[in-house]
Task: structure prediction
Amino acid sequence: MKLPEGLRVLITGGAGFIGSHLVEKLLDLNNEVIVLDNFTYGNKISHLKGNRKLTVYRADVRDFKKVKETMKKVNIVFHMASIVGVEEAYRNPVEVLDIEAKGTANVLTAAREYGLDKVLFGSSSEVYGNYLHAMSEAGPLAPISAYAHAKIIGEEYCRAFKQEYDVDYVILRYFNVYGPRQDDRFVIPRFVKRVSQNKPLIIYGNGEQVRDFTYIEDAVNMTLLSATKENANCKTINIGTGIRTSINKLAKHILKIMRKEKKLQLTYMNYNSKRPRAIEVFNRVADISSASRTLNYKPRIKLSTGLKRYVNWYLRE
Ligand SMILES: NC(=O)c1ccc[n+]([C@@H]2O[C@H](COP(=O)([O-])OP(=O)(O)OC[C@H]3O[C@@H](n4cnc5c(N)ncnc54)[C@H](O)[C@@H]3O)[C@@H](O)[C@H]2O)c1
Result:
């Protein structure tokens, strides 16, 4: 598996969940890493403070001057800065658009000016909306939220910059990535937190919504392979596993791992103004045949293993 080595890379949103794992792995591989983040959701790389190969800028990706400053002599940029989480994004539609559109345009413009090798854009499986079958990169796309539409704008900007200025890109459509350091804007950390507090799990709707849970180690490997593999250039890649799991099944899994299945119940709740039914995707699973072929990689971490690792990390922290 050939991953980036000895390069200078920028990670926007590098203090976030996926970003922090990219930072760790890229430092391990002896790269020089620069992070640009405004710390909206805290700092998940504080444990790396003092590493000589890491430089952190507290800045907003919408500030072009700062983006340009951080991109000098950089080979590759991983553009992950975003407002993430269905509910967060629902509450901030204007900011979501602003960050996706302006932030992505800034990154691509600086990449063009400095002649970077590649821009990797963190997109989302939300762009597919509801689709009964496994979702393939070729579409159809049926976005149902402002967040998903904004991601499509970011994707289209990548394509436009290739067409107009020959900037190479890879679009990464992440499917429910989870693992250590993820915070409780997301379903797995929320469930684990409630179980550890002996509180029943709250599920919106009937719990039969299907997701494709992807462990962070697989997501990072696929992201880094997309950076090094030339045949990934200018492609869109699903970062998922192709395995369907309902929210009910996920909840029962977590209760079992935490040995609370006899003590705690699942509580069902109607959608509400905090989480409206209109923006809920009911069926989401990746078709990873193209991604596996392009990257020569198949996700390795089963949900049961990944959940145990997350729970162990959570209890330790
Ligand atoms: N985690 C998932 O399952 C998932 C699924 C689909 C897509 N994605 C995409 O992957 C990327 C990373 O997601 P994540 O899960 O690590 O989320 P995260 O919220 O943990 O990380 C995002 C980071 O971006 C930073 N940020 C937000 N606005 C910024 C701005 N204006 N300027 C600079 N930094 C800013 C935040 O402070 C945060 O550190 C995002 O683009 C997200 O849309 C993630």
Notes: The radius of gyration is 19 Å. The longest helix spans residues 93-114. The mean pLDDT is 96. DSSP finds ten helices and 13 strands in the chain.
